[in-house]
Amino acid sequence: MWIYLLQGIGYGIAAASQPGPLQTYLITQSLTRGWKRALPTALAPLVSDGPIILLSVLVLSQVPDWLQRILYIAGGLFVLYITYGTYKAWREFHEYQATPEIPDHQSILKAAMTNALSPGAYIFWTLVTGPILVRGWREAPINGIGFLSGFYAAMIAGLAAIIIVFGVAGKFGNKFNRALLGISTIALFCFGVYQLWLGLF
């Protein structure tokens, strides 16, 4: 079990640190709401990944190309929707703006949807971590549980670290905060357009 636990931790760190729509959304939340209020959004993978793992391990490796294209398009459109909200926050940013009163559960739900509609998560579980999980589970269920435990402990800790780092960095000044928010907007837009491109061409 320890081998699978360590593999899970390694892949969890990798999943948290690779740039993607979820990470960019978490950074945006940290900059606009403060890291303390944004911290619960690090739990979003626990909400979204159950169906992702099930689909990836059991189904997605055999789906036709047209269904993959629909997934890319749906993900791209949702990321662009998130981008618009981020752009509005950047455009309307004031030097002494109050923290937006967004309920925590709505923020977690948006983060979970961002992750669920991102093809990267499916590809990661289909091609990388899915085979390890299946092999470990077949050897002994405790191996699969150890892998998942290590993966999500490391991933959530990594996402929480990202939120805290950018939240603290935002305290260097409102101009710096707004600049980071602008960069997040551009990054989200690029992710959305790229996913649409993959789905359409």
Structure summarized in a few sentences:
This protein has 201 residues and is mostly helical. The protein has helices at residues 2-17, 21-33, 35-38, 44-58, 65-91, 104-116, 119-139, 141-169, 174-200.
Your description of this structure?
- This protein has helices at residues 2-17, 21-33, 35-38, 44-58, 65-91, 104-116, 119-139, 141-169, 174-200.
- The longest helix has 29 residues, at 141-169.
- The protein has one domain (2-200).
- Helices cover 82% and strands 0% of the residues.
- The chain is mainly alpha-helical and 201 residues long.
- The protein starts with a helix and ends with a helix.
Main features:
201 residues; mainly alpha; 9 helices; 0% strand
Write down the domain tally.
Answer: 1
Content-based structural category: mainly alpha
Total number of helical segments?
9
Beta-strand segment tally: 0
Shape: flat
Distance between the termini: 43 Å
Low-confidence stretches: 95-101
Helix content: over 70%
Order of helices and strands: HHHHHHHHH
- Give the C-alpha Rg: 18 Å
Write down the overall mean pLDDT: 81
**Biggest sheet record:** none
Percent strand equals under 5%
